[in-house]
Design a protein that fits this description.
By secondary structure, this protein is α/β, with parallel strands linked by helices. 21% of the residues lie in helices and 29% in strands. The strands form two sheets. An eight-stranded mixed β-sheet has the order 8-9-10-7-11-14-13-12, covered by helices on one side. Strands 2-3-1-4-6-5 form a six-stranded mixed β-sheet. The longest helix has 16 residues. The N and C termini lie far apart (50 Å). The N terminus is likely disordered.
Length: 282
């Protein structure tokens, strides 16, 4: 009986020894593999308006990295880096949950999510100076990734990393869930799960593994983009549309077919989009 009296205290002590999750503040960088830096760089410079140089600077804390390489097991998505307030503590936290963590290199650690996407964590450092907007957008709002099992991904991103689900959507006529949006626990940026019954071939994931840049008015940007494209080698259609999430958007593609979604931050009437109740793909 005396042992039972001490049992709650011992259990509480054991829980206290478990590492606490450091903060995850937002998306720091998304890295893509490209076949040629020249055409890829011109796409970001001439079409999207960003200054020359690598990485592509979106704002004082976000960027897009381009690396020469063939499409791999995850297509041309190379990695997604999130900001944390403590890289070392994050490594210990992930290891405590049975996740294999790389040694810290240049202040970053790397892991793999359930679908094999390369995920990194880097230390957040406040900007030393005010940022001057240089491209079509100064905010990378989300990154989209292919997901084969919603249950496995939610256990990883929600249960372990603390991401918060805030919307579900279904493609018209699909009958199953198509997208699930998961926001970082201490910020406003998010990951978009692109759900599939059978994952696309890695070489065909350019439209699925993507980034989304936020602009105030998509229709105005479409007219400007068309005028710019007329004087460049960009020949794909540039057309605004209203997505299932009821936000105006336009899709652009780099020379290797990787999608860059340009989207307004709010819905067409300011009312939130209703979440889908469809089941996920089997």
């Amino acid at each position: 009986m005396r042992f039972l009296l001490y049992l709650p205290i011992l259990c509480g002590f054991a829980r206290a020894q478990e590492p606490l999750r450091p903060k995850i503040l937002g998306i720091a960088q998304v890295s893509f593999l490209v076949s040629d830096l020249g055409p890829a760089g011109r796409f970001y410079r001439e079409i999207l308006g960003y200054r020359a140089g690598l990485p592509i600077v979106i704002n004082d804390r976000q960027s897009v990295a381009l690396k020469v390489g063939e499409a791999g097991l995850d297509g041309r998505l190379n990695s997604i880096t999130f900001y944390t307030n403590d890289v070392i503590a994050m490594g210990k936290y992930l290891s405590a949950h049975g996740i294999q963590v790389s040694e810290a290199v240049a202040g970053r650690i790397a892991i793999r999510d359930p679908d094999g996407h390369a995920i990194e964590f880097a230390a957040y450092l406040p900007a030393a100076q005010q940022f001057e907007q240089r491209g079509i957008s100064d905010h990378l709002m989300h990154a989209g990734i292919t997901v084969g099992s919603l249950d496995r991904s939610q256990k990883f991103y929600a249960d372990i990393l603390g991401f918060r689900e805030f919307w579900r959507g279904s493609a018209v006529g699909s009958g199953t869930l198509s997208w699930v949006n998961m926001r970082v626990p201490e910020g406003d940026e998010y990951i978009e799960f692109m759900l599939y019954r059978q994952l696309p071939d890695p070489a065909a994931r350019g439209g699925q593994n993507h980034i989304c840049l936020i602009v105030a008015h998509v229709d105005a940007e479409v007219e400007r983009l068309r005028a710019i494209a007329a004087h460049t080698s960009y020949k794909r259609p540039i057309k605004a549309q209203t997505g299932v999430n009821r936000k105006r958007q336009v899709n652009l593609f780099d020379p290797d077919g990787t999608r860059v979604e340009i989207m307004e931050p709010g819905t067409i009437d300011g009312e939130p989009a209703v979440s889908s109740e469809a089941p996920p793909p089997a």
